[in-house]
Amino acid sequence: MQKRPKKGCEHRLYQPFFTAKTAYRSSDAQALATRKNRISPQSGKEGEQQSCTLYPERKIYDIVEKRYGVNREIVAAILLKETRLGRIALKHDSFYVFDTLLRKLRDDTPRNRRLLAMARSNAAAIVEFCYTNGIEPQACRLPASYAGAVGIAQFMPSSFSYAVSSAPDRAPDLTDMKDAILSTANYLHKKAGFTKLLDWSKVGDMRAIEDAWYAYDFTRKNASFAYEKQNRRYYDCFTCKSKKFAYIRDYAKKIMRYNNASNYAVGVLRLAYEARR
Asked: How far apart are CA 190 and CA 46, in angstroms?
């Protein structure tokens, strides 16, 4: 289980870190949390300052940046949004979720047929994962959300090929923080083409960008932060209208390979931006 930071020295990615005047708007456009006093990385004694500014599992995060070219704060922000760094209890078994869909859904509508195809592929991926790693069927219990997404990183079983183990003598365990960190970075690296660390000096004020995006999205029915066209659909693209957003648009697209929602990508970038500061 991931250790909590010492009292009075909570890492900024464990608790959202905003002043009383600001509130982070998550993907459902509601405030995630507020804090009256944000911890300053320059405050406190030297030893306390270091422990406050370094990430938990910092050695793994070092590997993430060197091996995969993915910013540690991006990975941590994704895990925070997915399961609050493992603090959200996962009360379901992934195989049972997809097995239930296969047993109860009728093949009578296009939507149901898509769901059934998704359930088959994910159930098959779970069986393959357990068989390949020598896990007995009765022991193959994968803690998941109600949608079947597994572990701290909320991987769908069909994405298990991107899962990475931090130990060479065992299968990847997405309920383990080290494995979740490595797996998230590997997914972004291989599937999203995230190969070079985001340079925050080229981004500008992410707070202002976020505010402008939400105002833009609120007044349009079909807005996208990064795309004019995607999956045969056309969007009113926020960042496509100005060259100054070209850099952040490219990285937003990479994050949207993990979760396709514009608000998700903007939220991850804002969390990472605040953590980096």
From this structure: 38
The type of residue at 179 is D
pLDDT tens for each residue of the chain, 277 residues long: 444 444 433 344 443 333 222 333 443 333 333 322 332 233 334 333 333 334 568 899 999 999 999 999 999 999 999 999 999 999 999 999 999 999 999 999 999 999 999 999 999 999 999 999 999 988 899 999 999 999 999 999 999 999 999 998 999 999 999 999 999 999 999 999 999 999 999 999 999 999 999 999 999 999 999 999 988 899 999 999 899 999 999 999 999 999 999 999 999 999 999 998 7
Half-sphere exposure of 197 (CA within 13 A, CB side): 16
**pTM higher than 0.85 for the full model?**
no
